[in-house]
Amino acid sequence: MASLYSEEHSSVFLKVFGTSPQLRLLDFFLDNPNHDFSRKEIMEAIGMAKRTLYEYLPILLEEDAVKVTRKIGRAKLYALNKESSIVHCFLRVENEGVLVRGARGTRSILASRHLLFNVEH
Question: Which residues are paired to 68 by β-bridges?
């Protein structure tokens, strides 16, 4: 079974911004905005080591990109924080990047990176 993050299955988001652990996590939540997941489910879905997840998930929580939605026993469930301004920015970039790619071909995918930089500066 191929990894979700192989070249063959890589999302537009990851092709433009890279496949660092933090971006892989964010991409996973962006792809699943209406669901919450345990740490184990996240690790299995994206093929991430436990140590890596435990290092990078707190960063997304601290930046408000991801939030704890509920607890089941001792397990916390995590979901995309749709109210976060950071998430709004990335959703806009991802959505417009996909539209640009579909309308003008693969070469125009870099327009997504330009949109993000305009928002931040």
Answer: 78
How far is residue 32's CA from residue 51's CA, in Å, rounded to a whole number?
A: 22
pTM exceeding the 0.85 threshold for the entire prediction? no
- DSSP letter assigned to residue 78: E
- Specify if 42 maps to a domain: yes
Count how many domains the chain has.
1
Domain hosting 104: range is 12-120
For residue 76, the SS3 value is strand
Express each pLDDT in 10-58 by its tens digit.
677 777 777 899 999 999 999 999 999 999 999 999 999 999 999 999 9
Residue 69 lies in a domain: yes
